[in-house]
Amino acid sequence: MRLSQMLFVTLREDPAEAEIPSHKLLLRAGYIRRIGSGIYAYLPLMWRVLQKVSQIVREEMNAIGAQECLLPQVQPAELWRESGRWDTYTQAEGIMFALKDRQERELGLGPTHEEVITYIARDMIRSYRQLPQTLYQIQTKFRDEIRPRFGLMRGREFIMKDAYSFNANEEDLRQTYHDMHRAYSNILRRSGLAFRAVEADSGAIGGSASQEFMVLAEAGEDEVLYTEDGKYAANVEKAVSLPPDAQQSPFTTYEKLETPGTPTIETMCAFVGCSPTQVVKNVLYQVVFDHGLTLLVIVSIRGDQDVNEVKLQNEITRLAPQYGGKTAIALIVPDATAQQKWAAKPLPLGYIAPDIADDYIRAEKVHPKFLRLVDKTAVDLQNFATGANESGYHVVGANWNEQFRLPENIVDVRKARIGDRAIHNPEQTLQSARGIEIGHIFQLGTKYSVAMGATYTNEQGEEVPLVMGCYGVGVSRLAQAAVEQSYDKDGIIWPVAIAPYHAIVTIPNINNAQQVEVAEKLYQQLNNAGIEALLDDRNERAGVKFKDADLVGIPYRIVTGRSLEAGKVEVVERKSRNSHEIAIDAVVSTLQQWINSAVQG
Ligand code: ATP
Ligand code: MG
């Protein structure tokens, strides 16, 4: 492609809308343009990158026997009602764009495709002889993200590869999952990204085991906890660890103390003279179930620890059937306005005890009793301090089943944090890093096949539900993450395998006939040899052309400049900035060699 004929517009200044380097650079170098909130146009250079990423994904999927297909983006509500996800996806989390057609039929724009694929499997898979099956597609997904940001990182319309497997049993599923794990590692390695596979929460998708593939970068929205020995890595939402040991309690007898102005653990500990590890902190949450019921929850946890809200939401979903619901769809710490809707009288916030009375609750569609949960860290405490259910008062020297009944529901909802000891080896401590979630693989099990009646006949002639897995890669997010991991002050440094072009032939001065002639010839030869080349034949100063080439991040720049007199051109590697004088007729073979080794490396 000739730059003189291309829609090629670069910006010298950072656009105000961009916050992180990769977003700024993709805008400045003319890869993307914002059309609306979380909605972007992929311009010709970007589209080439996305095609390259897609091709790597396609090759790795095909290599493990997955079959490519294309599923509809417009999906009937009935399918989502069958799985029980219509309300959660259109209302509570509201991630699905929903619409009505002219016949008043409800439809959603696909944020993910479990329902559609399970519908197909129900129709087409009958016998164990057809198993296993894995289908995948590379397609635009729609999600009405509450906070679209960072360009392609969190869009409302983005490209995903999603795959779904149907297996005869759990063991067979684990085999497919294992193959996917390998394929995902290959995809990221081949795309030139440094990454880490981590244990992950399964979230609203459901299922058991799941792992995320994280690209480590400061701008990542996820926190990863890991150990130096490489044996443990997990998303903080899922991470487990050993809490620090609790200190000996200084209290020997139970008493109520006046502790004015001590609503936080810190102020209270300073006032009564104890360690936060000797405090039972009682945190109030408000949950809404899928069927609309609100439940108030008191979580008692050791004072130095924090609640992991993802784990808490999972626990409450586990208990949902006791309240007539299926899932906890929203979980918040209720602020003053939220409390007004159900509180019969002002709560003693900051001084709540595990046994706070149920008569604080009064409202319709609100469960009349608190759900009381106790985290494992608080169970073994003796002579602890806690609130007195009265503003300005605490109790000390308390014990479970003496002054306070130990809640029936003992849970692990503690947030693991940096510096905690690891479970697999207490000598290892957790380290923390930021990560961008690029891929997510799940062992789903039978959640969707049971809900939608997708069964097959096994070898014993019994009709049993299909066992499923699902596997997603954010193709557009991956492309931007590559930039986030690889840039310098002058611009993007694309990994060779996913660069929009391999080389750019720059003519310093288009009024110099020899420079033009050699450049034109090289440009032809490179393309003929399968080396994707750009030709900068614009009537611009050499300095402008060099700046643009750096900004756009093409791996190799070939300059038909001064060295022509010696029958050579200058070849500069973008990444190292190393410059080589290479004989004109050796350029193609040299580049071919460099590109091959970079792509395989
Ligand atoms: P996140 O936690 O970042 O919201 P998710 O867990 O909801 O992502 P999945 O449902 O696991 O995402 O989707 C599979 C992959 O699709 C993700 O690993 C990510 O790479 C990509 N992806 C998800 N949401 C977006 C988005 N809004 N914009 C771009 N890519 C996305
Ligand atoms: Mg995910």
Structure, explained:
With 601 residues, the protein is α+β, with helices and mostly antiparallel strands. It folds into three domains: 3-240 and 432-483, BirA Bifunctional Protein, domain 2 (2-Layer Sandwich), CATH 3.30.930.10; 255-411, YbaK protein, CATH 3.90.960.10; 501-600, Rossmann fold (3-Layer(aba) Sandwich), CATH 3.40.50. 27% of the residues lie in helices and 27% in strands. The protein has 15 helices and 31 strands. Strands 3, 7, 8, 9, 10, 11, 12, 21 and 24 form a nine-stranded mixed sheet that branches. Strands 16-14-15-17-20 form a five-stranded mixed sheet. A hairpin with a 4-residue loop joins strand 14 (280-289) and strand 15 (294-302). Helix 1 crosses helix 12. The longest helix has 21 residues, at 170-190. It is globular and about 95 Å long. The protein starts with 20 loop residues before the first helix and ends with a helix. The relative contact order is 0.14. The model has no long low-confidence stretch (mean pLDDT 95). Adenosine-5'-triphosphate binds next to strand 8, strand 21, strand 24 and helix 12.
Which residue ranges are poorly predicted, with pLDDT under 50 across at least 5 consecutive positions?
Answer: none
Number of helices: 15
Question: Structural class of the secondary elements?
Answer: alpha+beta
Morphology call: globular
Number of strands: 31
State the fourth-level CATH superfamily of the largest domain.
Answer: Bira Bifunctional Protein, Domain 2
Counted up, domains total: 3
CATH architecture of the largest domain: 2-Layer Sandwich
Q: Could you estimate the helical fraction of the residues in percent? A: 25-40%
User: What is the makeup of the main sheet?
Assistant: 9 strands, mixed
In CATH, what is the class of the largest domain? Alpha Beta
Assembly type of the chains comes to single chain
